[in-house]
Amino acid sequence: MKSFNQYITEAKQKFVKGWTLKNKIHTSTTDYDDYHIKHVVNRPSKFGLTDKKILKIISDAHPDAPTEWPKEYLKELQKGVADNDVYIEDYLKKKGYCAFVLDPTHGSIQGWDEKSSKIGAKVLDDNYLPFEMDGFKLFEVKPVKGRPKYITNKLDWNDWIAGKAKRKYVSPMAQFRESVEYYLDTSKDNTEKYVANDGEYWYTGKIGIRGGDRYLKFVGTHGKDGYFEKAKLKKTTPEKIKKDVDFTIDFKKLYKK
Fold this sequence. Notes:
- By secondary structure, this protein is α+β, with helices and mostly antiparallel strands.
- The protein has 2 domains: 4-161, no CATH class; 173-255, no CATH class.
- It is 35% helix and 26% strand.
- It is built from 10 helices and 12 strands.
- It has helices spanning 4-11, 36-42, 51-61, 69-79, 86-94, 114-128, 154-161, 172-179, 225-230, 238-244, and strands spanning 16-21, 24-29, 97-102, 106-110, 138-141, 149-151, 181-185, 194-197, 202-210, 213-220, 233-236, 248-255.
- The strands form 2 sheets. The protein has a 6-stranded mixed β-sheet with strand order 2-1-3-4-5-6. The chain has a 6-stranded mixed β-sheet with strand order 11-7-8-9-10-12.
- The longest helix has 15 residues, at 114-128.
- It starts with a helix and ends with a strand.
């Protein structure tokens, strides 16, 4: 099994492309000019093909072409004069092969449908961790049959390859607010009656000064966990606290000290 550092080292590769099949990288290269089709036509047996079968695919796709043209065209594909052939590549994609590309900011997978493309994407995640690369911004899913997908963040990427529905966007501030619970300590009659808990620490309201104006901030308490666990706290919300306080309240941050 690869270590995490090995994964990260591989993830830092500047460029890689190739083919996946089932749960493995089938072929790969870091040579930009080593086109996907060259992997196939120069090593046909690796893809379950022969020159004869490839020539038939070409001939069937171009029935009006001159008799010798398929052989000439195959040589062009082998040399890289032509950089792709949709008919040969689609034939392979129907068999479960997926063509992929990864560079420092962008990646793509091309399978026959979304299901097969997702299988290929899982292989890339296992081997290259694309969304762990610094600066990686976009992964395109481009099935032959079906709509393309454009994934722009790690959460959506992980959800998609796990088969989960796409998340609705939640801002960092909204995520923060959802993780904090607010209470009223009815035994207090000063700002310390406003209490917050982030699941790990307890905080009480304190007066702060900013730009000459005072504001309410939540400052961490130390050694008082037992008190808050036994205290008769009443659940409240930031909106209710705003109505009760006649000056600015800082809900954007919890102060450890």
